[in-house]
Specification:
The chain has 437 residues and is of the alpha/beta class. It is 40% helix and 14% strand.
C-alpha cells in the first residue's frame, strides 16, 4: 500500500444484495479501511446495520417499493428463489427462459428503480473510486464520471469466449457439444430484455451495453475471483485491465465451538452448506439429512433461513448461520451448492467438494470441480442415496487429493486476494488512470 493513513481516499462498494458479493467486498474493504481509507457500502435497506457492525459506513437504497412488513437481509432473493425453485429440476438450457431471463429482468428492474438514489449517494460522497460487484450494470456509476471497478464474483464464464463453455450451462470444457444450441437459446431468451436495458443506459447518459452482456467492462480496473487451478483456457485473452484474484476470503471474527461428539469421533468431519438461498429448499435439506444420517461420518450443517422447519440427525450439529471462513479449516470435506464464494473458499482452505448445484453459475462451478479433479458433481435432485454416501467415503480417504489441495491452498494463502485487490483499488484512487496487469 502506498498511501499514508493521513491521506485516505473514499472508496464506495456497491455489492449485489446477497451474502456472496457482500462478503467478498467486505474482505477487500477491511484491508482498505486498515490503510486509512474511508470505506462506504451502498446496501439494500434489508441489510441495514450489517456492514456498520463490521466498522463500515452505510448508505441505504432500495431496488423496489418498500414492503408492508420488515424484511430479512436479502429477503427479495430468498422469496424469488423459493417461488422459482421448481425450475431447478429442469436441464440448464430450459432454465434460460424460465429462470435466467426472469432473474436478469428482476435485476434490470432494480437498476432502473434505484438509479436516481445512486446518483444522490455518489453526489453526496464524491468517492475517489466506486467498486461494483453485480451481474448487471447501473447507469449512475458510469454517469458519475468517477473511476470505477467491476468485480466478477461469479464463475468467470460470465466473461464470454468462444473457447469456453456458455455461462450457466454446466457443460464440459474441451467438448463443444451443445454449446451452439445453448447460446442460441440464451440469445432468444434474453435478447429483448437486453435491448430494453441497453436503451435505459443511453437514456440515463451512459454508453449502450455490449452485445449479449448486461454490464460493461470497466475501462479503469476489472477483477474476477477464481483460482488458477480451476480457471479456463481462453482463445482470446482478457483485456489489459482484467486481474485475477485466486480467492477473496474475508477475515472472520466469529468462532465455531463444535460439540465434543462432533469435534471428536470416528470418520471424517463433513460440512454441508447449500448457501443462504439453496438451504431454503426445505424438502431438499430434509432429504440430505435423511441420507447422511446413515453415514459413519460426522456433519456440520449450515441450516439456513428455514432452520426451524427441519431437525438434524444424531451424527450432525448445525445452526441457522455459521461463520464459514472460521469453520472450513476445521473440516475434512464439503458438500456444497457450488456457489462461487464457497467454491473458491474451499480451494483457499484445501477442502475437496461434492457439488449439488441448484441455479445460476453453480452448474459451471460444479462441472469445473469435477473436471479438474477437486471432487464430484452429483445431480442435485436425482442422485441415488448410495452415490452421495460413496462420494463422501471416497473423498474421505483420498490422501493424494488432500495433498494436492493443500499445495493449492498454500499458494493462494501466500498472496491473499483481499490484499491484492485493495492494492489495485488504492492505486486507481491515487493515480486515476487505468490499472493494467
Amino acid at each position: 500500500m502506498s498511501q499514508s493513513r493521513t491521506d485516505g481516499r473514499t472508496v464506495v462498494f456497491f455489492p449485489e444484495g446477497a451474502y456472496g458479493p457482500t462478503n467478498n467486498c467486505a474482505g477487500i474493504g477491511q484491508v482498505l479501511r486498515e490503510q486509512g481509507h474511508r470505506v462506504v457500502f451502498v446496501v439494500e435497506e434489508s441489510f441495514v446495520g450489517s456492514l456498520e457492525a463490521q466498522g463500515f459506513d452505510e448508505r441505504l437504497m432500495r431496488l423496489g417499493p418498500a414492503p408492508e412488513v420488515e424484511e430479512e437481509p436479502g429477503q427479495f432473493w430468498k422469496d424469488f428463489i423459493r417461488d422459482t425453485a421448481p425450475v431447478f429440476r429442469k436441464p440448464t438450457v430450459e432454465q434460460l427462459a424460465e429462470f435466467i431471463e426472469p432473474t436478469f429482468r428482476a435485476l434490470c428492474d432494480g437498476a432502473r428503480y434505484v438509479d436516481d438514489r445512486l446518483r444522490e449517494i455518489f453526489d453526496e460522497l464524491r468517492p475517489d473510486v466506486i467498486v461494483e460487484d453485480n451481474v448487471v450494470g447501473f447507469p449512475a456509476i458510469q454517469h458519475s464520471g468517477r473511476p470505477w471497478v467491476r468485480i466478477v464474483s461469479c464463475n468467470p464464464l460470465e466473461l464470454k469466449d468462444q473457447g469456453i463453455p456458455p455461462v450457466f450451462s454446466g457443460y464440459a470444457a474441451g467438448d463443444d457439444m451443445g454449446w451452439r444450441e445453448f447460446l442460441a437459446e440464451y440469445e432468444r431468451a434474453t435478447g429483448e430484455l437486453h435491448a430494453e436495458f441497453s436503451e435505459l443506459f443511453v437514456e440515463r447518459g451512459a454508453p449502450p451495453l455490449p452485445a449479449g452482456d448486461f454490464i460493461h467492462e470497466s475501462e479503469w480496473l476489472d477483477l474476477y475471483v477464481y483460482p488458477a487451478e480451476l480457471d479456463y483456457e481462453r482463445v482470446r485473452p482478457l483485456g489489459p485491465t482484467w486481474h485475477r484474484l485466486d480467492t477473496c476470503v474475508r477475515r472472520s471474527d466469529g468462532e465455531v465451538a463444535l460439540p465434543e461428539r462432533i469435534a471428536e469421533g470416528d470418520g471424517a468431519l463433513v460440512y454441508l452448506s447449500l448457501g443462504s438461498l439453496g438451504s431454503a429448499d426445505v424438502e431438499l435439506m430434509r432429504r440430505l439429512v435423511d441420507v447422511l444420517s446413515r453415514s459413519p461420518h460426522r456433519f456440520v450443517v449450515s441450516k439456513g433461513p428455514q432452520a426451524a422447519e427441519y431437525e438434524l440427525a444424531e451424527n450432525m450439529w448445525g445452526e441457522e448461520y455459521l461463520p464459514q471462513p472460521a469453520l472450513l479449516p476445521l473440516v475434512d470435506l464439503v458438500v456444497t451448492h457450488a456457489g462461487n464464494n464457497t467454491t473458491t473458499e474451499c480451494v483457499h482452505f484445501g477442502k475437496p467438494m461434492i457439488a449439488l448445484p441448484l441455479f445460476w453459475d453453480q452448474y459451471d462451478n460444479a462441472q469445473r470441480i469435477a473436471e479438474r479433479g477437486f471432487g464430484f458433481r452429483l445431480p442435485t435432485y436425482e442422485f441415488a442415496d448410495e452415490e452421495l454416501l460413496d462420494a463422501i467415503d471416497r473423498l474421505a480417504v483420498d490422501d493424494a487429493l488432500r495433498v494436492r489441495m493443500a499445495e493449492s491452498a498454500a499458494r493462494v494463502q501466500a498472496s491473499p486476494g483481499t490484499v491484492h485487490a485493495a492494492g489495485l483499488i488504492e492505486r486507481l484512487a491515487v493515480e486515476r488512470a487505468p490499472i493494467a496487469r
